[in-house]
Hints:
single chain, mainly alpha, globular
Amino acid sequence: MPIPSDEEIRALHEKYAPTPEALALVYTHCEIVCEIAERLIDRSGLALDRALVRAGCLLHDIGVYRLFDASGRLDHARYVSHGVLGHEILAEEDLPEPLCRFCSHHTGVGLTRVDIREQGLPVPEQDYVAESVEEELVMYADKFHSKRNPPVFLTADSYAASVARFGEEKVIRFKEMRTRFGTPDLAPLAAAYGHTLVGAGDESAPRADGTT
């Protein structure tokens, strides 16, 4: 399967970003998620396709651009749909389905058709859960950084506490991923990017409903 280079992925971001500010916000987040994922690969020793994970990380949030209006404001009410929108963008660009799935299958710790129905979410009613180890790792790495204003890093305990509002099964799912991939050391990244590291119990912690 052909995997686009970093330069080709950056060009796609530039193509769809409505403003330089949106590009900086989304692409920087994707780069951070990629750094987290690659550090977890190095520590875990898991057998997986590293190039596929890198591309998946750098592409996973490209659908966010379709939620900005002409003035540059983000439609937070429909934010949960950004994964499906990203899948559509990559499909329109004729990228392989495994790459498209990184967009639609990274939200939260997985969205099910039951989640969608019960919460009235603005996405087609089907299951959006990680199936491959690569999809699972991109989903997991994404949980440690939020594009909130200003952007922040989230400790594992912080995310676990915030996802609890969506049910015990979500807490268990996150715990399983944490056991499988390990807990990233976020302090060096937080210092490098100048973003606050939010711990459990911090009132500034973002929601765990896909708004990362």
